[in-house]
Specification:
Helices cover 35% and strands 16% of the residues. It is of the alpha/beta class and 264 residues long. It has one domain: Rossmann fold (3-Layer(aba) Sandwich), CATH 3.40.50. Strand 2, helix 2 and strand 3 form a beta-alpha-beta unit. The longest helix is centred in the N-terminal third of the chain and has 18 residues. Bound molecules: 2-phosphoglycolic acid (PGA). The site of 2-phosphoglycolic acid has 6 residues, from loops. 2-phosphoglycolic acid binds next to loops.
Length: 264
């Protein structure tokens, strides 16, 4: 696992944008797995800048989002579809039909079939080349809350009380935060060919250390990335401050620059 420790959030966002833009340059028709939340906002701003100023083209790129609140219409201002449209898709040359976000307003009796279809769509498009992840305060990736099976697939999940409290900042009242979501599973995420996990801010420091350096456990679903052979964690100094192997990650980063190749 590569761990890149950046001096601040801006540099974190830039590093992540370099991983994505290099992939697009190498494989213009690549499939990206995308995340929502505060953490990837800087990355999306940087991708928009690269599109506008450096002609990075998304015209053949396809994207699959990790999750969506269950019960919200796509047009709801807090839906993840709306988040993606306003923070990224509308500002780049991606084709709307190439952007997939789970639909939050399907009927519950259709959910199982719908989730299976979402996974099939990923496969039909060749699988995810690069998955972007954040990490929740409770260690979740996507909405795989503590206790989710490490083999889980796309499904309806119930949100943890901690997640509801964390996400209440985006709603007028905590009672308005949806209690359920559609989420890719941990098993789905691990099938991506490459993963980048982003973490910023001191409030993520304890859980990031558990995820990267603690035991692999369904109680911290982000710890499942330890199974994956091509993971790059990009963290700012604040989120990295509880990592026991901090000096080693810095050493590896220098070593990588010397031999000019990523060391996973
Ligand atoms: P955040 O959310 O980026 O808003 O901290 C991360 C997550 O819940 O996965």
């Amino acid at each position: 696992m590569r761990v890149i420790i950046t001096k601040d959030y801006y540099e974190l966002s830039r590093e992540a944008s370099v991983v994505i833009s290099s992939l697009i340059n190498k494989k213009p028709g690549c499939v990206l797995g995308l995340a929502t939340g505060s953490t990837p906002l800087g990355l999306y701003r940087e991708l928009v800048r690269l599109h506008k100023e450096e002609k990075l083209s998304f015209s053949s790129v396809k994207t699959f989002n990790l999750d969506e609140y269950y019960g919200l219409n796509p047009s709801h201002p807090q839906s993840y579809r709306h988040f993606m449209d306003t923070n990224l898709f509308r500002h780049i040359d991606i084709k709307p039909e190439n952007t997939f976000v789970p639909e939050g307003n399907i009927k519950s009796e259709e959910a199982e079939e719908y989730c299976r279809g979402y996974e099939e769509e990923i496969k039909k498009n060749g699988g995810i080349d690069l998955q972007v992840l954040g990490i929740g305060g409770d260690g979740h990736i996507a909405f795989n809350e503590p206790g989710s099976s490490l083999g889980s697939r796309t499904r309806i999940v119930a949100l943890d009380a901690r997640t509801i409290a964390d996400n209440a900042r985006f709603f007028n009242k905590a009672e308005e935060v949806p209690r359920f979501a559609l989420s890719m599973g941990v098993g789905t995420i691990l099938e991506a060919r490459e993963i980048i996990l982003l973490a910023a801010g001191s409030n993520k420091a304890p859980i990031l250390a558990q995820a990267l350096e603690g035991p692999i456990t369904s109680m911290v679903t982000a710890s499942a990335i330890q199974f994956h052979p091509r993971v790059t964690v990009i963290t700012d100094e604040e989120a990295a401050c509880s990592l026991a192997r901090y000096p080693y990650y810095k050493f590896i980063r220098d070593a990588e620059q010397k031999i000019n190749t990523p060391l996973f």
